[in-house]
Amino acid sequence: MRIIVDMDRCQDHGQCVFAAPEVFQINPAGRLEYTAEPDDELREAVEEAADVCPLQAITIED
Amino acid sequence: MIIGVDGARDRPGVVVAGAAMGGLRAAEQLRAAGWTGPVTVVGDERHMPYNRPPLSKEVLAGEVSHAAVAFRTRASVADVTWRLGTAVAAADLTERRVTLADGSTLPYAGLVVATGIRPRRLNCPGPRGGRHVVRTLDDAQALRGELRAGRRLVVIGAGFIGCEVAATARGLGMEVTIVAPESEPMLRPLGERLGAALRRRHEARGVTFRLGRTIDRFLGGADGAGNGHGDDDRATGVVLDDASTVPADVVVEAVGSVPNTEWLAGNGLDLSDGVVCDALLRVEGRPDVVAVGDIARFPNPRYDAVARRVEHWSVPTDSAKRAARTLAAQLTGGAVDETPFAPLPTFWSDQYAERLQSFGAPGLGAADIRLLEGELDADCVVGYHHADGRLVGIVALGGGAAVAAARYRGALAAHA
Predict the structure, then answer these.
(1) pLDDT tens for residues B309-331?
(2) Which fold would CATH assign to domain A2-61?
(3) Neighbours of B251 (CB within 10 A)
(4) Minimal Cα distance from B356: which residue of A?
Protein backbone atom coordinates (compact mmCIF):
# COMPACT_ATOMS: atom_id res chain seq x y z
CA MET A 1 0.00 0.00 0.00
CA ARG A 2 1.34 3.39 -1.00
CA ILE A 3 -0.22 6.70 0.03
CA ILE A 4 -0.05 9.83 -2.07
CA VAL A 5 -1.27 13.12 -0.64
CA ASP A 6 -1.81 15.94 -3.11
CA MET A 7 -0.14 18.67 -1.06
CA ASP A 8 -1.47 21.34 -3.44
CA ARG A 9 -4.96 20.32 -2.37
CA CYS A 10 -4.24 19.67 1.32
CA GLN A 11 -5.52 22.49 3.53
CA ASP A 12 -4.42 21.00 6.86
CA HIS A 13 -7.89 20.09 8.13
CA GLY A 14 -6.28 17.26 10.08
CA GLN A 15 -9.22 14.84 9.74
CA CYS A 16 -6.83 12.14 8.49
CA VAL A 17 -4.85 12.47 11.72
CA PHE A 18 -7.90 11.45 13.75
CA ALA A 19 -8.67 8.55 11.41
CA ALA A 20 -5.12 7.14 11.16
CA PRO A 21 -2.79 8.76 13.72
CA GLU A 22 -0.13 6.09 13.10
CA VAL A 23 0.19 7.33 9.52
CA PHE A 24 -0.71 11.04 9.49
CA GLN A 25 0.56 13.78 11.81
CA ILE A 26 0.36 17.56 11.91
CA ASN A 27 3.85 18.93 12.64
CA PRO A 28 4.51 21.86 15.00
CA ALA A 29 4.34 24.23 12.02
CA GLY A 30 0.76 23.08 11.42
CA ARG A 31 1.54 21.17 8.21
CA LEU A 32 0.72 17.58 7.37
CA GLU A 33 3.37 14.84 7.51
CA TYR A 34 2.69 11.21 6.68
CA THR A 35 4.21 7.76 6.20
CA ALA A 36 4.05 6.99 2.48
CA GLU A 37 4.21 3.20 2.73
CA PRO A 38 2.49 2.10 5.93
CA ASP A 39 1.93 -1.47 7.03
CA ASP A 40 -0.99 -3.22 5.32
CA GLU A 41 -2.71 -3.88 8.63
CA LEU A 42 -3.41 -0.13 8.77
CA ARG A 43 -5.43 -0.30 5.55
CA GLU A 44 -8.84 0.21 7.13
CA ALA A 45 -7.65 3.29 9.02
CA VAL A 46 -5.99 4.67 5.89
CA GLU A 47 -9.15 4.11 3.82
CA GLU A 48 -11.07 5.95 6.53
CA ALA A 49 -8.54 8.81 6.40
CA ALA A 50 -8.95 9.08 2.62
CA ASP A 51 -12.75 9.09 3.00
CA VAL A 52 -12.84 11.86 5.61
CA CYS A 53 -10.41 14.22 3.88
CA PRO A 54 -12.51 17.31 3.04
CA LEU A 55 -10.31 18.09 0.05
CA GLN A 56 -10.20 14.42 -1.07
CA ALA A 57 -6.44 14.85 -1.37
CA ILE A 58 -5.45 11.32 -0.32
CA THR A 59 -5.10 8.45 -2.80
CA ILE A 60 -4.09 4.89 -2.04
CA GLU A 61 -2.20 2.69 -4.48
CA ASP A 62 -1.70 -1.04 -4.08
CA MET B 1 -27.25 6.02 -18.63
CA ILE B 2 -26.42 2.56 -17.28
CA ILE B 3 -22.83 1.79 -16.40
CA GLY B 4 -21.99 -1.82 -15.65
CA VAL B 5 -24.03 -4.99 -15.60
CA ASP B 6 -27.51 -4.66 -14.20
CA GLY B 7 -27.23 -7.38 -11.58
CA ALA B 8 -30.79 -6.86 -10.47
CA ARG B 9 -31.90 -8.85 -13.52
CA ASP B 10 -30.39 -12.00 -12.09
CA ARG B 11 -31.30 -11.88 -8.42
CA PRO B 12 -32.39 -9.00 -6.24
CA GLY B 13 -29.49 -7.33 -4.52
CA VAL B 14 -29.15 -3.98 -2.83
CA VAL B 15 -30.61 -0.91 -4.49
CA VAL B 16 -29.02 2.34 -3.36
CA ALA B 17 -31.40 5.23 -4.07
CA GLY B 18 -29.22 8.31 -4.52
CA ALA B 19 -25.88 8.57 -6.34
CA ALA B 20 -24.15 11.34 -4.42
CA MET B 21 -21.60 10.98 -1.65
CA GLY B 22 -23.92 8.94 0.59
CA GLY B 23 -24.79 6.53 -2.20
CA LEU B 24 -21.15 5.98 -3.14
CA ARG B 25 -20.07 5.47 0.45
CA ALA B 26 -22.97 3.06 1.03
CA ALA B 27 -21.90 0.94 -1.95
CA GLU B 28 -18.27 0.91 -0.78
CA GLN B 29 -19.20 0.11 2.79
CA LEU B 30 -21.56 -2.70 1.75
CA ARG B 31 -18.57 -4.35 0.11
CA ALA B 32 -16.39 -3.63 3.15
CA ALA B 33 -19.09 -5.22 5.34
CA GLY B 34 -18.97 -8.40 3.29
CA TRP B 35 -21.96 -8.04 0.96
CA THR B 36 -20.93 -9.71 -2.30
CA GLY B 37 -24.31 -9.67 -4.05
CA PRO B 38 -25.45 -7.19 -6.70
CA VAL B 39 -25.51 -3.47 -5.93
CA THR B 40 -27.29 -0.95 -8.14
CA VAL B 41 -26.96 2.79 -7.44
CA VAL B 42 -29.65 5.05 -8.91
CA GLY B 43 -29.37 8.84 -9.10
CA ASP B 44 -31.05 11.75 -10.84
CA GLU B 45 -27.82 13.61 -11.68
CA ARG B 46 -25.88 12.60 -14.77
CA HIS B 47 -22.54 12.87 -12.94
CA MET B 48 -20.73 10.23 -10.97
CA PRO B 49 -20.59 11.24 -7.28
CA TYR B 50 -18.56 14.38 -6.56
CA ASN B 51 -17.53 16.51 -3.63
CA ARG B 52 -19.89 19.42 -2.97
CA PRO B 53 -17.92 21.82 -0.71
CA PRO B 54 -15.97 23.30 -3.67
CA LEU B 55 -19.27 24.24 -5.37
CA SER B 56 -19.65 27.43 -3.31
CA LYS B 57 -15.96 28.29 -3.56
CA GLU B 58 -13.50 27.01 -6.20
CA VAL B 59 -16.17 26.06 -8.74
CA LEU B 60 -17.64 29.59 -8.59
CA ALA B 61 -14.23 31.25 -8.73
CA GLY B 62 -12.84 29.50 -11.80
CA GLU B 63 -13.08 26.79 -14.38
CA VAL B 64 -13.46 23.56 -12.41
CA SER B 65 -14.51 20.40 -14.20
CA HIS B 66 -16.34 17.36 -12.86
CA ALA B 67 -13.06 15.43 -12.92
CA ALA B 68 -11.54 17.87 -10.42
CA VAL B 69 -14.30 17.31 -7.86
CA ALA B 70 -15.23 13.66 -8.56
CA PHE B 71 -14.75 11.23 -5.69
CA ARG B 72 -12.22 8.46 -6.12
CA THR B 73 -14.05 5.14 -5.99
CA ARG B 74 -12.67 2.06 -4.33
CA ALA B 75 -11.76 -0.95 -6.46
CA SER B 76 -14.33 -2.93 -4.48
CA VAL B 77 -17.20 -1.14 -6.24
CA ALA B 78 -15.99 -1.83 -9.79
CA ASP B 79 -18.90 -4.28 -10.25
CA VAL B 80 -21.58 -1.87 -9.03
CA THR B 81 -24.21 -0.81 -11.58
CA TRP B 82 -24.75 2.94 -11.83
CA ARG B 83 -28.06 4.17 -13.23
CA LEU B 84 -27.39 7.88 -13.56
CA GLY B 85 -29.66 10.61 -14.88
CA THR B 86 -32.69 8.66 -13.65
CA ALA B 87 -34.46 9.55 -10.43
CA VAL B 88 -36.23 7.04 -8.23
CA ALA B 89 -39.94 7.83 -8.54
CA ALA B 90 -41.66 5.43 -6.16
CA ALA B 91 -41.08 2.55 -3.79
CA ASP B 92 -43.16 -0.31 -2.48
CA LEU B 93 -41.42 -1.35 0.71
CA THR B 94 -43.70 -4.34 1.22
CA GLU B 95 -43.17 -5.74 -2.28
CA ARG B 96 -39.49 -4.69 -2.08
CA ARG B 97 -39.45 -2.80 -5.36
CA VAL B 98 -38.52 0.68 -6.53
CA THR B 99 -39.82 2.36 -9.67
CA LEU B 100 -37.59 4.76 -11.61
CA ALA B 101 -38.62 7.93 -13.43
CA ASP B 102 -38.23 6.10 -16.77
CA GLY B 103 -40.89 3.59 -15.66
CA SER B 104 -38.55 0.67 -15.09
CA THR B 105 -38.71 -1.23 -11.82
CA LEU B 106 -35.97 -2.72 -9.67
CA PRO B 107 -36.70 -5.44 -7.14
CA TYR B 108 -34.43 -5.44 -4.12
CA ALA B 109 -33.43 -7.56 -1.17
CA GLY B 110 -32.14 -4.49 0.66
CA LEU B 111 -32.66 -0.77 0.08
CA VAL B 112 -30.46 2.19 0.99
CA VAL B 113 -32.26 5.54 1.14
CA ALA B 114 -29.70 8.17 0.11
CA THR B 115 -31.69 10.65 -1.97
CA GLY B 116 -30.53 13.60 0.12
CA ILE B 117 -31.96 17.07 -0.04
CA ARG B 118 -32.67 19.81 -2.55
CA PRO B 119 -32.60 23.56 -2.03
CA ARG B 120 -35.77 25.18 -0.76
CA ARG B 121 -36.98 27.82 -3.23
CA LEU B 122 -38.63 31.11 -2.34
CA ASN B 123 -42.24 31.33 -3.39
CA CYS B 124 -42.41 35.12 -3.74
CA PRO B 125 -44.04 36.98 -6.63
CA GLY B 126 -41.85 38.22 -9.45
CA PRO B 127 -39.60 36.97 -12.22
CA ARG B 128 -37.94 33.59 -11.90
CA GLY B 129 -34.94 34.27 -14.13
CA GLY B 130 -31.57 35.30 -12.74
CA ARG B 131 -32.25 33.44 -9.49
CA HIS B 132 -29.83 30.65 -8.62
CA VAL B 133 -29.29 27.95 -6.04
CA VAL B 134 -26.06 26.10 -5.25
CA ARG B 135 -26.55 22.40 -4.67
CA THR B 136 -25.36 20.52 -7.74
CA LEU B 137 -22.35 20.89 -10.03
CA ASP B 138 -24.73 22.02 -12.79
CA ASP B 139 -26.13 24.69 -10.44
CA ALA B 140 -22.67 26.01 -9.61
CA GLN B 141 -21.49 26.03 -13.21
CA ALA B 142 -24.63 27.93 -14.27
CA LEU B 143 -24.05 30.52 -11.53
CA ARG B 144 -20.36 30.88 -12.32
CA GLY B 145 -21.16 32.30 -15.73
CA GLU B 146 -23.07 35.15 -14.05
CA LEU B 147 -20.48 36.19 -11.48
CA ARG B 148 -18.38 39.07 -12.78
CA ALA B 149 -16.56 41.99 -11.20
CA GLY B 150 -18.72 45.04 -10.68
CA ARG B 151 -22.04 43.22 -10.93
CA ARG B 152 -24.42 43.28 -7.99
CA LEU B 153 -25.18 40.01 -6.19
CA VAL B 154 -27.96 39.62 -3.64
CA VAL B 155 -27.60 36.51 -1.50
CA ILE B 156 -30.79 35.50 0.29
CA GLY B 157 -29.90 33.48 3.37
CA ALA B 158 -26.98 33.77 5.80
CA GLY B 159 -26.13 30.12 6.46
CA PHE B 160 -23.11 28.15 5.27
CA ILE B 161 -23.90 28.38 1.56
CA GLY B 162 -24.98 32.01 1.63
CA CYS B 163 -21.89 33.16 3.53
CA GLU B 164 -19.50 31.12 1.38
CA VAL B 165 -21.03 32.34 -1.89
CA ALA B 166 -20.87 35.93 -0.60
CA ALA B 167 -17.17 35.55 0.26
CA THR B 168 -16.37 34.00 -3.12
CA ALA B 169 -18.26 36.75 -4.98
CA ARG B 170 -16.43 39.49 -3.05
CA GLY B 171 -13.20 37.81 -4.07
CA LEU B 172 -14.35 38.15 -7.67
CA GLY B 173 -14.99 41.88 -7.17
CA MET B 174 -18.78 41.83 -7.04
CA GLU B 175 -20.98 44.10 -4.93
CA VAL B 176 -22.59 41.75 -2.43
CA THR B 177 -25.62 42.14 -0.15
CA ILE B 178 -26.82 39.36 2.17
CA VAL B 179 -30.50 39.44 3.17
CA ALA B 180 -31.68 37.13 5.96
CA PRO B 181 -34.38 37.00 8.65
CA GLU B 182 -31.97 36.14 11.48
CA SER B 183 -30.17 38.74 13.59
CA GLU B 184 -26.70 37.44 12.65
CA PRO B 185 -25.20 35.15 9.98
CA MET B 186 -24.93 31.43 10.79
CA LEU B 187 -26.93 32.14 13.94
CA ARG B 188 -28.17 28.61 14.63
CA PRO B 189 -24.80 26.83 14.69
CA LEU B 190 -22.73 29.74 16.06
CA GLY B 191 -24.97 31.80 18.35
CA GLU B 192 -25.27 35.59 18.55
CA ARG B 193 -21.73 36.64 19.52
CA LEU B 194 -19.70 34.51 17.13
CA GLY B 195 -22.27 35.15 14.41
CA ALA B 196 -21.69 38.88 14.95
CA ALA B 197 -17.93 38.34 14.74
CA LEU B 198 -18.37 36.53 11.45
CA ARG B 199 -20.57 39.37 10.18
CA ARG B 200 -17.87 41.93 11.06
CA ARG B 201 -15.33 39.91 9.05
CA HIS B 202 -17.64 40.00 6.03
CA GLU B 203 -18.36 43.71 6.53
CA ALA B 204 -14.64 44.47 6.73
CA ARG B 205 -14.35 42.98 3.24
CA GLY B 206 -17.23 45.05 1.91
CA VAL B 207 -20.32 42.83 2.23
CA THR B 208 -23.56 44.65 3.12
CA PHE B 209 -26.03 42.90 5.45
CA ARG B 210 -29.79 43.40 5.60
CA LEU B 211 -30.59 41.25 8.64
CA GLY B 212 -33.95 40.75 10.31
CA ARG B 213 -35.52 41.14 6.86
CA THR B 214 -37.46 38.84 4.57
CA ILE B 215 -38.22 39.02 0.84
CA ASP B 216 -41.65 40.29 -0.23
CA ARG B 217 -41.13 40.00 -3.97
CA PHE B 218 -38.63 40.12 -6.80
CA LEU B 219 -38.32 43.20 -9.00
CA GLY B 220 -38.28 43.11 -12.77
CA GLY B 221 -40.27 41.53 -15.54
CA ALA B 222 -43.94 42.41 -15.65
CA ASP B 223 -43.73 45.12 -12.97
CA GLY B 224 -42.28 47.37 -15.64
CA ALA B 225 -38.91 48.01 -14.01
CA GLY B 226 -36.48 47.99 -16.92
CA ASN B 227 -33.83 45.40 -16.36
CA GLY B 228 -31.26 46.12 -19.05
CA HIS B 229 -30.82 42.43 -19.78
CA GLY B 230 -33.40 42.31 -22.54
CA ASP B 231 -35.05 39.57 -20.53
CA ASP B 232 -38.51 40.18 -19.10
CA ASP B 233 -38.38 37.12 -16.88
CA ARG B 234 -35.24 38.18 -15.06
CA ALA B 235 -35.13 39.47 -11.48
CA THR B 236 -33.53 42.91 -11.19
CA GLY B 237 -33.68 43.20 -7.44
CA VAL B 238 -35.61 42.34 -4.31
CA VAL B 239 -38.26 44.18 -2.29
CA LEU B 240 -37.88 43.54 1.43
CA ASP B 241 -40.61 43.38 4.08
CA ASP B 242 -39.88 46.99 5.11
CA ALA B 243 -40.65 48.05 1.49
CA SER B 244 -37.01 48.93 0.82
CA THR B 245 -35.41 47.58 -2.35
CA VAL B 246 -32.00 46.11 -3.14
CA PRO B 247 -31.04 46.09 -6.83
CA ALA B 248 -29.43 42.94 -8.21
CA ASP B 249 -27.86 41.63 -11.39
CA VAL B 250 -27.77 38.12 -9.91
CA VAL B 251 -29.69 36.54 -7.02
CA VAL B 252 -28.66 33.45 -5.05
CA GLU B 253 -31.29 31.75 -2.89
CA ALA B 254 -29.65 29.90 0.01
CA VAL B 255 -32.65 29.45 2.26
CA GLY B 256 -32.37 25.89 3.46
CA SER B 257 -33.31 22.53 2.10
CA VAL B 258 -36.12 20.06 1.51
CA PRO B 259 -35.50 16.30 1.96
CA ASN B 260 -36.14 14.25 -1.19
CA THR B 261 -38.66 11.84 0.35
CA GLU B 262 -41.60 12.07 -2.07
CA TRP B 263 -40.74 8.73 -3.71
CA LEU B 264 -41.24 6.97 -0.36
CA ALA B 265 -44.84 8.16 0.03
CA GLY B 266 -47.54 5.53 0.48
CA ASN B 267 -45.47 3.26 2.72
CA GLY B 268 -46.78 4.55 6.05
CA LEU B 269 -43.52 6.28 7.00
CA ASP B 270 -43.16 9.55 8.92
CA LEU B 271 -41.72 11.75 6.16
CA SER B 272 -42.32 15.09 7.92
CA ASP B 273 -38.55 15.83 7.98
CA GLY B 274 -36.49 13.22 6.20
CA VAL B 275 -36.72 9.53 7.06
CA VAL B 276 -36.92 8.43 10.69
CA CYS B 277 -34.30 5.83 11.61
CA ASP B 278 -33.45 3.80 14.68
CA ALA B 279 -30.06 3.77 16.38
CA LEU B 280 -28.72 1.34 13.74
CA LEU B 281 -30.01 3.53 10.86
CA ARG B 282 -32.84 1.15 9.93
CA VAL B 283 -35.91 2.92 8.63
CA GLU B 284 -38.74 2.54 11.12
CA GLY B 285 -40.22 -0.95 11.04
CA ARG B 286 -38.23 -2.02 7.95
CA PRO B 287 -35.21 -4.20 8.77
CA ASP B 288 -34.24 -4.36 5.09
CA VAL B 289 -34.22 -0.57 4.55
CA VAL B 290 -31.55 1.80 5.89
CA ALA B 291 -30.97 5.52 5.38
CA VAL B 292 -27.76 7.53 5.08
CA GLY B 293 -26.69 11.15 4.73
CA ASP B 294 -28.72 14.36 4.80
CA ILE B 295 -32.06 12.57 4.57
CA ALA B 296 -31.52 10.29 7.59
CA ARG B 297 -33.16 11.47 10.80
CA PHE B 298 -31.38 9.56 13.55
CA PRO B 299 -30.91 9.84 17.32
CA ASN B 300 -27.39 10.52 18.59
CA PRO B 301 -27.01 9.05 22.10
CA ARG B 302 -24.05 11.35 22.72
CA TYR B 303 -26.61 14.08 23.27
CA ASP B 304 -30.19 12.87 23.69
CA ALA B 305 -32.88 10.60 22.24
CA VAL B 306 -34.22 13.10 19.69
CA ALA B 307 -33.95 11.98 16.06
CA ARG B 308 -32.50 14.77 13.90
CA ARG B 309 -31.27 15.25 10.37
CA VAL B 310 -27.69 16.54 10.28
CA GLU B 311 -26.55 18.27 7.09
CA HIS B 312 -22.81 18.05 7.74
CA TRP B 313 -20.31 16.79 5.17
CA SER B 314 -19.13 14.06 7.54
CA VAL B 315 -22.55 12.44 7.93
CA PRO B 316 -22.85 10.55 4.61
CA THR B 317 -19.54 8.79 5.23
CA ASP B 318 -20.17 8.05 8.92
CA SER B 319 -23.77 6.93 8.43
CA ALA B 320 -23.00 4.83 5.34
CA LYS B 321 -20.45 2.84 7.28
CA ARG B 322 -22.91 2.07 10.07
CA ALA B 323 -25.96 1.54 7.83
CA ALA B 324 -24.07 -0.80 5.48
CA ARG B 325 -22.99 -2.98 8.39
CA THR B 326 -26.57 -3.13 9.64
CA LEU B 327 -27.96 -4.01 6.22
CA ALA B 328 -25.25 -6.51 5.25
CA ALA B 329 -25.79 -8.42 8.51
CA GLN B 330 -29.54 -8.43 7.93
CA LEU B 331 -29.22 -9.73 4.36
CA THR B 332 -26.61 -12.39 5.06
CA GLY B 333 -28.15 -13.67 8.29
CA GLY B 334 -25.20 -12.44 10.31
CA ALA B 335 -25.41 -10.99 13.80
CA VAL B 336 -26.51 -7.36 13.74
CA ASP B 337 -24.19 -5.18 15.85
CA GLU B 338 -26.53 -3.46 18.32
CA THR B 339 -24.06 -0.67 19.23
CA PRO B 340 -25.93 2.58 18.54
CA PHE B 341 -24.69 4.97 15.88
CA ALA B 342 -23.10 7.86 17.80
CA PRO B 343 -21.00 9.99 15.46
CA LEU B 344 -19.00 12.97 16.68
CA PRO B 345 -20.38 15.77 14.52
CA THR B 346 -17.92 18.03 12.76
CA PHE B 347 -18.26 20.83 10.26
CA TRP B 348 -16.12 23.48 8.69
CA SER B 349 -16.52 26.49 6.46
CA ASP B 350 -13.98 28.48 4.47
CA GLN B 351 -14.77 32.15 3.91
CA TYR B 352 -12.01 34.40 2.52
CA ALA B 353 -8.81 33.10 4.11
CA GLU B 354 -10.69 32.29 7.33
CA ARG B 355 -11.37 28.76 8.49
CA LEU B 356 -14.29 27.97 10.75
CA GLN B 357 -13.92 24.52 12.32
CA SER B 358 -16.34 22.81 14.69
CA PHE B 359 -16.49 19.59 16.64
CA GLY B 360 -19.46 18.37 18.65
CA ALA B 361 -22.91 19.94 18.52
CA PRO B 362 -22.66 23.68 19.22
CA GLY B 363 -26.31 24.07 18.24
CA LEU B 364 -27.26 22.01 21.32
CA GLY B 365 -25.09 24.17 23.60
CA ALA B 366 -26.81 27.52 23.20
CA ALA B 367 -27.62 27.61 26.95
CA ASP B 368 -24.11 28.81 27.79
CA ILE B 369 -21.67 30.06 25.15
CA ARG B 370 -18.19 31.08 26.35
CA LEU B 371 -15.05 32.40 24.69
CA LEU B 372 -12.42 29.76 25.51
CA GLU B 373 -9.39 31.19 23.69
CA GLY B 374 -8.33 34.33 21.85
CA GLU B 375 -10.57 37.20 20.83
CA LEU B 376 -13.76 37.11 18.79
CA ASP B 377 -12.38 39.50 16.19
CA ALA B 378 -9.10 37.59 15.87
CA ASP B 379 -8.36 33.87 16.13
CA CYS B 380 -10.70 32.37 18.72
CA VAL B 381 -12.24 29.22 20.13
CA VAL B 382 -15.80 29.36 21.47
CA GLY B 383 -17.32 26.67 23.70
CA TYR B 384 -20.99 25.70 23.70
CA HIS B 385 -22.43 24.15 26.87
CA HIS B 386 -25.55 22.18 27.61
CA ALA B 387 -27.84 23.46 30.40
CA ASP B 388 -26.22 20.86 32.71
CA GLY B 389 -22.83 22.59 32.23
CA ARG B 390 -21.34 19.96 29.92
CA LEU B 391 -19.25 21.18 26.98
CA VAL B 392 -21.09 19.78 23.91
CA GLY B 393 -19.45 21.66 21.06
CA ILE B 394 -16.71 24.07 20.06
CA VAL B 395 -16.16 26.36 17.12
CA ALA B 396 -12.73 27.73 16.22
CA LEU B 397 -12.45 30.68 13.85
CA GLY B 398 -9.39 32.14 12.16
CA GLY B 399 -6.21 31.14 10.42
CA GLY B 400 -5.26 28.44 12.94
CA ALA B 401 -8.77 27.12 13.46
CA ALA B 402 -8.09 23.52 12.44
CA VAL B 403 -5.24 23.09 14.91
CA ALA B 404 -7.04 24.99 17.66
CA ALA B 405 -10.24 22.95 17.25
CA ALA B 406 -8.29 19.68 17.26
CA ARG B 407 -7.18 20.32 20.84
CA TYR B 408 -10.79 19.99 22.02
CA ARG B 409 -11.83 17.06 19.90
CA GLY B 410 -10.66 14.41 22.36
CA ALA B 411 -12.70 15.88 25.20
CA LEU B 412 -15.79 16.16 22.98
CA ALA B 413 -15.36 12.61 21.70
CA ALA B 414 -14.78 11.13 25.16
CA HIS B 415 -18.29 11.19 26.60
CA ALA B 416 -20.68 9.21 24.46
Answers:
(1) 999 999 999 999 999 999 999 99
(2) Alpha-Beta Plaits (3.30.70)
(3) 29
(4) A13
